[in-house]
Design goal:
heterodimer; A: 218 residues; 8-stranded mixed β-sheet; 13 strands; 29% strand; B: 251 residues
Chain lengths: 218, 251
């Protein structure tokens, strides 16, 4: 089982790789398309602007390989911007297009304080492997100005909700093997590490195979 | 609901944590790695390391320290002190910092904020304002509180926000280490006029001060040094107290 971590030259990857090292999970940095052949699961920690990330990925010939990875429903965990890029549009960069594997859009907070910086809670809308061993509505570290907006009602990919000022928004998503979290599990203390471990262990057990999957208690 | 953050601040000189009063009279306060571990276990929401030594070797010591801490402590780490160029920002982030606090260099060269935000994202650029009262208002000071830049603290905060700073770390020089409480007027003036988060620093001496800084002063986070270093209180006690005052905290 090899984990790939996307490195497109912008993000601060060290916190993610430090967390993986701490959890004793071997990983490979992905800087170009060839390296995508050598991995089974993909973590995309994104920071910076939506358009800048798309442009950097294209420059490094990583955009299309990641898009096919997602289209083939291979295990993916997007963190922060890595989750937002699962959608096609963001009001941050109206001209840019993300991977577009989930239907929805990314909007800017209308809030007194932007960005949202700090620890906030996630309410899971369904039982799921990420929440294993985590009590109640766990706290995670958030740092963002844009959020995922599922439109009216709850989108089928909504996994977790968070309230910032007067706005309850989607802070975790899941569709089959594709996962995304708006917060930073790698910066969220023991609970964040547990969530990362949950994802890695879950993926390790079943890979891309959807069958024989039972929800752990939460 | 977003919770208010308690951020222990470790001033580092010669590889050791020190703490002074009004930016002077530094005293030894402990070993940085051990203190960082302890605060992490006690529920610190973030940690800040301020390199207050001046030498280039000192800079290396602090980066080595951050590197070590980042391998075992999984909360956001901020590094400040001596960040003068885009390259300094990159090196701090490479060492494992999530944010950098920039003070003097940003006043001398405001473009550093923009460059930092463009290259690494606004989220990692914390503008540190050392505010001192002079004549009839607060000014931003440089060089560890020794030199008045002539720029009003509020003007500088608003300007830095426009330039791309993601947060403001507001230090009151007059209250630093005094345990007299935060300068609520200063805090209120800045926090009510900017729309990026404000971290209050300088003066907390008892539990009530934290509640005041947050409720009256409008701070989004509080920096704590002396009180924790000298074991006058603990993160747990601060959070329990804030909870009784209706302040949302993570615990």
């Amino acid at each position: 089982m090899t984990i790939g971590v996307i490195n497109y030259g912008a993000g601060n990857l060290y916190s993610v790789t430090n967390a993986l090292t701490y959890l004793e999970k071997p990983f490979k940095m992905i800087t170009g398309p060839q390296e995508m052949d050598q991995i089974n699961s993909l973590i995309f920690p994104g920071v910076g602007s939506f358009a800048a990330a798309v442009n950097e990925l294209k420059k490094r010939e990583l955009f299309i390989p990641i898009k096919s990875w997602l289209d083939n429903n291979r295990p993916y965990l997007g963190i922060c911007l890595g989750m937002q890029l699962l959608f096609s549009r963001s009001s941050e960069s109206p001209e840019a297009r993300g991977f577009g594997v989930l239907a929805g859009r990314v909007e800017k907070f209308r809030a007194k304080r932007i960005p949202q910086i700090g620890w906030n809670q996630v309410s899971w809308v369904k039982r799921n492997p990420l929440s294993y061993h985590l009590q109640g509505d766990p706290f995670f570290y958030f740092l963002h100005s844009y959020y995922v907006c599922g439109g009216k009602g709850q989108a089928p990919w909504t996994l977790g909700l968070t309230t910032y000022e007067n706005n309850t928004y989607t802070s975790a998503v899941n569709l089959e093997n594709i996962w995304g979290v708006q917060f930073h599990p790698e910066k969220s203390g023991p609970e964040g590490l547990q969530l990362l471990k949950n994802w890695l262990d879950w993926e390790g057990d079943r890979g891309a195979n959807q069958e024989n999957y039972s929800l752990p208690g939460c | 609901m977003l919770t208010k953050r308690i951020i222990p601040c470790l001033d580092v000189e010669n590889g050791q944590v020190v703490k002074g009063t009004r930016f002077k009279d530094l005293k030894y306060a402990g070993n940085p790695v051990e203190m960082a571990r302890q605060y992490y276990q006690e529920g610190a929401d973030e940690l800040t390391f301020l390199d207050i030594g001046a030498s280039p070797q000192e800079k290396e010591t602090v980066l080595e320290l951050v590197k070590k801490v980042a391998r075992e402590i999984f909360i956001p780490l901020t590094v400040g002190g001596g960040i003068r160029t885009k390259e300094d920002v990159a090196r701090a982030l490479e060492a494992g910092a999530d944010k950098v606090a920039i003070c003097t260099a940003a006043l001398k060269n405001p473009d550093l904020i923009t460059q930092g935000a463009e290259n690494f994202g606004s989220q990692c650029i914390v503008l540190s304002i050392d505010a001192g009262f002079s004549d009839d208002t607060w000014y931003a000071f440089t060089h560890g509180g020794r030199t008045n830049s002539g720029k009003k603290a509020i003007d500088w905060a608003l300007e830095a926000q426009e330039l791309g700073a993601g947060e403001i770390l507001l230090n009151s020089i007059d209250r630093d280490g005094t345990l007299d409480g935060y300068d609520l007027e200063l805090l209120g003036e800045i926090s009510s006029r900017v729309n990026i988060p404000v971290i209050a620093s300088g003066g907390a001496g008892k539990l009530e001060h934290f509640a005041e800084g947050i409720i009256t002063g409008g701070a989004d986070a509080v920096l704590v040094a002396s009180l924790l270093h000298y074991k006058q209180t603990s993160i747990k006690l601060i959070k329990e107290y804030l909870k009784t005052k209706g302040v949302p905290v993570r615990c």
